């Protein structure tokens, strides 16, 4: 039996050739960089859009220059829900990495499966 192919009734859309990082942080930002990007619900700490961008770029630089991680490699982010998580994810995206976020509540067998399945050679906590 041949596979069944479903066609959308919606018109085709052009997907922009732009990274998520470039879309969120354009050269000429639409929003003030001092505006809050994230607010920690537990303690009220705020991180601005500019801070997120700067921290993410610093992480991206460190991943590439200090750790020697190459564009296209897969990295696993193992972190609880915190203000560091989006910075880590955006830093990896800025460095051109593929991200495999891991839940900090995973059991060791679940984590081992994700490491093997994602092919992540680098893991960050």
From TrEMBL:
Keyword Transcription among UniProt keywords: no
InterPro entries: AMP-dep_synth/lig_dom, ANL_N_sf
GO molecular function, one term: CoA-ligase activity
Keyword list, A-Z: Ligase
Residues in AMP-dependent synthetase/ligase domain copies: 35-120
PANTHER family: AMP-BINDING DOMAIN-CONTAINING PROTEIN-RELATED, LONG-CHAIN-FATTY-ACID--COA LIGASE
Family: Belongs to the ATP-dependent AMP-binding enzyme family.
UniProt protein name: AMP binding protein
Organism: Rhizoctonia solani
Source taxonomy: Eukaryota, Fungi, Dikarya, Basidiomycota, Agaricomycotina
